[in-house]
Amino acid sequence: MSTPRSDRMTLVAFMQASNVSVYSGSWRYPSSAPDYLNLRYYQRIARTLEDGCFDLMFFDDRLAMPAIYNNSVADAVKYGARPIKLDLTAVLGAAAAATEHLGLGATYSTTYYEPFHVARTFATLDHLSGGRAAWNVVTSVNDAEAQNFSVDAHSEHDRRYDRAEEFIDVVTKLWDSWEDDAITGDKESGVFADPDKVHELHHKGEFFTVRGPLTVPRTPQGRPVIIQAGQSGRGRGFAAKWADLIFTGDPSQPVAIEHYRQQKELIAESGREPDSVRILPMVYVIVGETEQIAAEKEAIFLHELVHPMASLTLLSEVTNHDFSGHSLDDVVTDELIDSVSGIRGLVQGVKRHVGDQPLTLRVLANHRATLLQGPRFVGTGAQIAEQMRQWFESRSCDGFVIAATHFPGAFEDFVRLVIPELQRRGLARTEYSGATLRENLGLERPANVFGQGVPAGV
């Protein structure tokens, strides 16, 4: 059964359980709320997003402070470059209690967690939220994360994806280990559940040995929604096979259009219906009551709030390379690119922005820490709605991951000024129609592999 492309944008709010948004200077903006260590902070934002009928509130995560630059966390702490990362289980629980419809997504790594732990965490969230859970599947990126989990250095790229493939296979089977009608709850006979419909996995693979079954029955969504954001060839193939939502970081619309076409082809080649998977670029939105107000705000975010050392600290984190021996004005040479694992794709993306001019570490770092790292829509609510409409209708995307310049004001402004314009154009919902996140996304509930006769341990 084919899934037609929706005529409504999928809207995801990009969150951090942190002192900053993905924009590392956000803590310095005058109206940024300082109570990010209080659950009410996340509940306020969640209620704002639900008022705007967003599909999903999604939290990014890392398992370490940025500590690669100069082999120290000092600059991350000093300049507020994402030194705080709260545990997302509690944060999502607080958001679930404050909302009724909003999807709730979180990043959990396949590199240092275990499949049973992740399966149980998201199955529990899916039940307690009434079917609103989503898991962002990532492989961890640097040695600082490894060193918090008793490992000296993180494994190489393809090895991490080998582990991720087996990891997600085990997780999905754990989610299916209870069939939907396993629980009978017959108080008179004393039979709680049918043991023939609760399945042990007996999985023995290269990385994991998992007996199962999961200690949480099958969830309202069948399986939580899967998010993936891999940009490498291996990552794109992984997303094509597993993801319901694919987050992208394309620097411009022409690049996004080509990425969209290629990714949809990969999804089809994997045997899935392309329009059943949503492709969503991360964008910044700076909205004002007038064009002048929006332009003034953009200038502040571009030029005044991110310290250069915060940018370089974050560049070291994402590339797993210590740049403390370099100057910000050093040119990024072919020799440097060859010597730094993980930097080539970033350099290629930034060059699409800056053209043929020499690329310095300052420019490269700024694209990781400032508004330069992705497309941005700037203007009044009506102007931004038109920019989003043009991207959506040209098949550059199936919706957007909205990155906040500051919390909570960026989302409050978007809901107040942009959402009504999108609703008037028929591009955003005016109310939720489904009971679960999958239903609101227009995604089918997955069949249970054991209900289809798949033997345990396969």
Provide the CATH superfamily of the largest domain.
Answer: Luciferase-like domain
Report the CATH topology name of the largest domain: TIM Barrel
Write down the domain tally: 2
Distance between the termini: 26 Å
What fraction strand? 5-15%
Percent of residues in helical segments?
25-40%
* SS field, number of helical segments: 16
Question: In CATH's first tier, which class of the largest domain applies?
Answer: Alpha Beta
Unreliable runs, pLDDT <50, ≥5 residues?
Answer: none
Order of helices and strands: EHEHHEHEHHEEEEEHEHEHHHHHEHEHH
Plain-language structure description:
With 458 residues, the protein is of the alpha/beta class. It has two domains: 10-290 and 376-441, TIM Barrel; 307-369, no CATH class. Helix content is 39%, strand content 14%. The protein contains 16 helices and 13 strands. The strands form three sheets. Strands 1-2-3-4-9-10-11-13 form an eight-stranded parallel β-barrel, surrounded by seven helices. Strands 5-6 form a two-stranded antiparallel ribbon. A hairpin with a 4-residue loop joins strand 7 and strand 8 (209-210). The longest helix has 19 residues, at 157-175. 49% of the residues are buried. The mean pLDDT is 92. Keywords: Flavoprotein, FMN, Monooxygenase, Oxidoreductase.
